[in-house]
Amino acid sequence: MTSIAKIKKMDILNAAPKHLHQEVFKLVISGSIHRIASTTREFDMTKFEWDESIVLGIQFIDKQHKALFDWMNSLHEAITEGDGKVKVEEIINNLIKYVIVHFSEEERLMLSWNYPALGAHRKEHDHFTTKLQDIQSSFNAGNDMSADVLVFMVDWLVCHIKGTDIDYSRFIHEGGEKRITAPTVSAESGSA
């Protein structure tokens, strides 16, 4: 099991917005992310496993979250199997495109329910997208994709889902405020 000391060293704690640090710390202390975080620590594993504890109960969002894990697994496989720079670049490009589509749809859903914390949530999305683009730029400049980068991606996603996505999910499941519009769901909810 991953120790709290190791989790505190994760890039996510250095890269995440300050309010997410508190959520990550709560999850670490409660033990909620130990199993997931510890499974991502081993780079020689075959897959990052989807865990039912991160299901939000919003079918199209859960499907997209699973697809994000699929993209990360594709990236992991391409790196560990030595598929080459072109294949890794292609997967990173597709992952970023998918993240942007997913975040946009998630934000439209929150807007349609008049979710009051949309602004803060959007900042987290923007921060992660920027971080992915920085990772892409670094890789394109000739730097290797390390296990730490993949761990960061999965850890950030899990902590984001359990830390902030669960909040809007609860809001929606509890009826939220008066729903003002129906969300538009993109046809791009496939996986890698």
Summarize the structure in words.
The structure is a single chain. Helices cover 68% and strands 0% of the residues. The two termini are 29 Å apart. The N terminus is likely disordered. It is mainly α and 192 residues long. Helix 5 runs antiparallel to helix 6. The longest helix is centred in the middle third of the chain and has 28 residues. The protein contains eight helices and no strands.
Record the SSE blueprint.
Blueprint: H1 4-8, H2 11-15, H3 18-30, H4 34-40, H5 59-80, H6 85-112, H7 118-140, H8 147-173
Helix pairs in contact: 3-8, 5-6, 5-8, 6-7, 7-8
Structure described in brief:
With 192 residues, the protein is mostly helical.
Provide tags for this entry.
about 190 residues; disordered N terminus; mainly alpha; about 70% helix
Overall geometric form? elongated
Largest sheet: none
- Distance N terminus to C terminus? 29 Å
Please estimate the helix content.
55-70%
Count of helical stretches: 8
Write down the secondary-structure element order: HHHHHHHH
Would you tell me the overall average pLDDT? 75
Structural Rg: 16 Å
Structural class: mainly alpha
Count of extended strands? 0
Unreliable stretches covering 5 or more consecutive residues: 1-46
Q: Proportion of β residues?
A: under 5%
